[in-house]
Write a structure and sequence with these properties.
CATH superfamily of the largest domain in chain B: MetI-like
Shape of chain B: globular
Strand order of the largest sheet of chain A: 6-7-8-3-9-10-13-12
Structural class of chain B: mainly alpha
CATH topology of the largest domain in chain B: MetI-like fold
Strand content of chain A: 15-25%
Largest sheet of chain B: 2 strands, antiparallel
Radius of gyration of chain B: 24 Å
Distance between the termini of chain A: 29 Å
CATH class of chain A: Alpha Beta
Largest sheet of chain A: 8 strands, mixed
Oligomer: heterodimer
Number of domains of chain B: 2
Strand order of the largest sheet of chain B: 1-2
Helix content of chain A: 25-40%
Structural class of chain A: alpha/beta
Radius of gyration of chain A: 20 Å
Distance between the termini of chain B: 13 Å
Chain lengths: 344, 344
């Protein structure tokens, strides 16, 4: 994939793919600002005081194992958690607080300002309505359009997503399309009302490996063309390496480390980030991966220690005395008392 | 589609053949004989020559297999013979009077059942495990469990004896007349602009239709509730919300998805509806197919019983076929094909 400014950027993960470069427009007020966000389901704490912000045009990667709180964070942003969930903290979209906002305001924000691309394309579309009807429906909730204009806009967007026969696709039902086509239709449904922030939740996990990259590139390409910010949720570090500008590594519901993508891959500070990188295959390595011992944590009640303590090689007594506060060093913020050495 | 209908037609013939065998022989092994009942004899009374003449005239003196072959031959030519009792009136004419009455009553009952069950099912499914849901479940259980004859008699007690609001027997007030066009009283009355008669017929139908309707609405509530719940937990419902679709529209999507299954179940319940009319028409002295059937059984009027049973069977099969075709039209994933019936 060609970078927008025509330059090519080296890949911190060592996988040889090009991707859009960082553009200077990131500076300025953040599009979305998440601070001290916590989400609880009954006794289970899914997210504890997560903070990050995403600027216009930026691709912000969120990585972590299943259960690390990625999806709960994303869903909290658009206020789409089950009624049993308790949310605390703040989510500001262009300065406007969304936590505790009215249902009507949230509904308006969803789709029109924040687009959410769902994990599983195979189930994210209504099986008994045509693609066209579902796309026009989104336009209609966010301002009335005639059916003809709506279909035209939908066709344009599908063409932009490299669907060969947009008009026929609009008339098709989801089951008549291939997985990759369906995922593009799902992306179109999230993008059609021109949101400025896109949350992509494991968008390609349900697809064949061969089409994963293509679909992801299309999504990011359209977002870049519109200058939209992207929160890219994935468990795949390779994807993050190739696409993201900045990355947050989630573990046990906290942001273990947040850094720009180069710093994270070259100079990880949190032991969990380091362990994740070591467990990932890199080009040129002779297949020596180190698995992380133990299994992902589920947090009950308040978090009172570093969630990674039980699996960490560098653990000490003070790790269990409380959750380490965020520590900022250069462009990297990490929550660890015994970080990996700074190799930069 | 055409293949499918032809295939089903073939199956229908086999079922109808089976029904003729069963009804023919069951009638003949039943105690009581038609001729004796015509003369109102006791078992010990000797009618001698007149019995022999009568049996000869009705064809009952011939061996059973000859009688059956004759009956099958008639049925396959679309003839239903003549009644043993009512001065040899053709069965087809008796059915012609009774059938439109039963159809109109059934449609009315079906409308009542839908009017009751659809809102209850939606409320139950949306507010799952709340007091609303439990109320809906209780209603469904009561509706299914109450014997319709008992419910009919209770309604007669309430609305005719204690608070005489509705008439309890017949089709309409005795002094009224309706010009016959289709034979269905309300339809004919409306077509001829005879509003007084239409109103009278409607009032006569209220109690039997309510009795019939509540019985089947219990089942409808269960079916629609469970298929709504199934849809409710599918991913695309949350995906719709994430696109900013309003809650009433989300419910419309749920209903659209639950409809095909429900339509099939309703089609399958047409049999229950028609067998319900047998009891209810007797309780309310409503001269439809059920009433005709019971009278025929009581008088051992073999041709009437045979004709009514074969026709009712054909109607149930036709309703099931219609439901399958409707399923194919409502759910784009279903392709109707011959061979295996309705496959997905």
């Amino acid at each position: 994939m060609l970078a927008l400014d025509g330059t090519q950027r080296s890949d911190p993960a060592g996988t040889e793919t090009q991707r859009p470069g960082l553009t200077p427009q990131h500076a300025g007020a953040p599009l979305i600002e998440v601070s001290d966000l916590s989400v609880r389901f009954g006794a289970v704490t899914a997210v504890s005081s997560v903070s990050f912000s995403v600027a216009k045009g930026e691709v912000f990667g969120v990585v972590g194992e299943s259960g690390a709180g990625k999806s709960a964070t994303a869903r909290a942003i658009i206020g789409l958690l089950p009624p049993t969930a308790k949310i605390a903290g703040s989510v500001r979209y262009k300065g406007e607080e969304l936590v505790g906002a009215s249902k009507a305001r949230l509904r308006q924000a969803r789709g029109a300002q924040i687009g959410y691309v769902f994990q599983d394309a195979l189930t994210a579309l209504d099986p008994v309505r045509t693609i066209g009807a579902q796309l026009v429906e989104v336009l209609n909730v966010h301002g009335h359009v005639s059916r003809r204009d709506g279909l035209e806009r939908a066709a344009d967007l599908l063409a932009e997503l490299k669907i060969n026969d947009p008009v026929r696709t609009l008339k098709a039902y989801p089951h008549q399309l291939s997985g990759g086509m369906r995922q593009r239709a799902v992306i179109a449904a999230a993008l059609i009302a021109n949101p400025e922030l896109i949350i992509a939740d494991e968008v390609t996990s349900a697809l064949d490996v061969t089409v994963q990259r293509k679909v992801l590139d299309l999504l990011l390409g359209v977002c870049a063309a519109r200058g939209a910010g992207v929160i890219l949720i994935t468990h795949d570090l390779g994807v993050v390496a190739q696409t993201s500008d900045r990355v947050a590594v989630l573990y046990g519901g906290i942001v273990a480390e947040e850094a720009d993508v180069f710093s994270l891959f070259d100079n990880p500070r949190h032991p969990y980030s380091g362990a994740l990188l070591n467990s990932m295959p890199r080009l040129g390595d002779q297949g020596v991966f180190e698995p992380i011992p133990g299994s992902a944590i589920q947090v009950f009640g308040d978090l009172r220690a570093c969630p990674f303590a039980d699996r960490c090689a560098r653990v000490a007594d003070d790790c269990r005395a409380g959750v380490p506060a965020p520590f900022k060093e250069g462009g990297t913020t990490y929550r660890c008392l015994h970080p990996l050495e700074d190799t930069a | 589609m055409i293949n499918f209908v032809l295939h089903r037609f073939g199956q229908t013939l086999i079922v109808l053949f089976g029904v003729t065998v069963i009804i023919f022989f069951v009638l003949r092994v039943m105690p009581g004989d038609p001729v004796g009942l015509i003369f109102g004899e006791g078992d010990d009374m000797d009618l001698g020559e007149s019995r022999r003449l009568y049996e000869e005239q009705l064809g009952l003196d011939q061996p059973l297999y000859v009688q059956y072959a004759k009956f099958l031959g008639e049925i396959s030519r679309g003839e239903f013979g003549t009644s043993f009792v009512r001065g040899g009136e053709p069965v087809i004419e008796m059915v012609g009077r009774a059938l439109p009455l039963t159809i109109e009553l059934s449609v009315f009952a079906l409308l009542i059942a839908l009017a009751i069950s659809v809102p209850i099912a939606i409320l139950s499914a949306l507010k799952q495990n709340t007091i609303w849901d439990r109320g809906g479940t209780a209603f469904a259980l009561i509706g299914v469990s109450l014997p319709s004859f008992w419910q009919g008699i209770m309604l007669i007690m309430f609305f005719a004896v204690w608070a005489p609001i509705f008439p309890v027997s017949g089709v309409m007030d005795a002094h009224l007349r309706i010009d016959r066009i289709t034979g269905a009283p309300i339809t004919d009355a409306v077509l001829t602009g005879n509003w007084e008669a239409a109103w009278s017929v409607l009032r006569h139908m209220v109690l039997p239709a309510i009795t019939l309707g509540t019985g089947i609405s219990g089942q409808f509530v269960r079916v629609l509730r469970s298929s709504l719940l199934e849809v409710k937990h599918q991913d695309f419902i949350d995906a719709l919300r994430a696109r900013g679709i309003s809650e009433p529209t989300v419910v419309r999507h749920m209903l659209h998805n639950a409809l095909p299954t429900t339509a099939v179940i309703i089609g399958l319940r047409i049999g229950a509806l028609l067998s319900g009319t047998i009891v209810i028409e007797t309780v309310f002295a409503y001269p439809g197919m059920g009433f005709l059937l019971i009278q025929g059984i009581n008088a051992r009027d073999f041709p009437v019983v045979q004709g009514v049973v074969v026709l009712l069977t054909a109607m149930v099969i036709a309703a099931n076929l219609l439901a399958d075709i409707l399923h194919g039209m409502l759910d784009p994933r279903v392709k109707l094909s011959g061979g295996t019936g309705s496959g997905a």
